[in-house]
Design a protein that fits this description.
Number of helices: 7
Helix content: 40-55%
Number of strands: 4
Low-confidence stretches: none
Number of domains: 1
CATH superfamily: Flavodoxin domain
Radius of gyration: 16 Å
Distance between the termini: 27 Å
Order of helices and strands: HHHHEHEHEEH
Largest sheet: 4 strands, parallel
Length: 161
């Protein structure tokens, strides 16, 4: 489900003429799970991710599903895989999503604290997307007009951030 929302957001940025890249955690290097440059020296796979997705980015959008009342551990592992300096001065936008009614508000709060600790600025519109599974059509595409409008507004705010 997270991938559906992330792809929609990415696709709409691209169609607006904004250069954007999408990192899919399903493609995260396995070595990132068991070692990272912060503790054991840089691995080449991790360095490739840093060079392509983190280093050149001025703004990073985090699409975060609710997991046990917060955000998934794999996201924490991802962040921990890079030296904190890579995040300093960058801007972040958050989209929380859940099958429940809160849209991962608590997880966005937790992640905001971590990102601010790393020296990032966080867009004040942390957008919760609730009951995401009910917003899709039969082809598993986002079809809820109110959500689409909220995402478009979020993108406008991100671009002006």
């Amino acid at each position: 489900m997270t991938h559906i929302l992330a792809e929609f957001y990415h696709r709409t940025l691209i169609s607006s003429g904004i250069e954007a890249k999408l990192f899919d955690f399903r493609n995260m290097p396995e070595s990132m799970l068991f070692s990272n440059p912060v503790f054991s020296g840089p691995g080449s796979e991790i360095q490739k991710v840093a060079d392509e997705f983190i280093q050149p980015a001025q703004k990073i959008v985090f699409v975060i599903p609710e997991y046990n009342g917060s955000y998934p551990g794999i996201l924490k592992v991802f962040i921990d895989g890079f030296k904190p300096e890579l995040f300093q001065g960058k801007k972040a936008a958050l989209l929380g999503m859940a099958t429940g009614r809160a849209g991962n508000l608590r997880g966005m709060d937790h992640l905001t604290d971590v990102l601010m600790h790393l020296g990032m600025q966080v867009l004040n519109n942390r957008l919760p997307v609730s009951r995401f599974h009910t917003l899709l059509n039969d082809q598993k595409q986002l079809s809820d007009e109110a959500t689409i409008k909220a995402l478009q507004k979020h993108q406008e705010q991100l671009l002006n951030f």
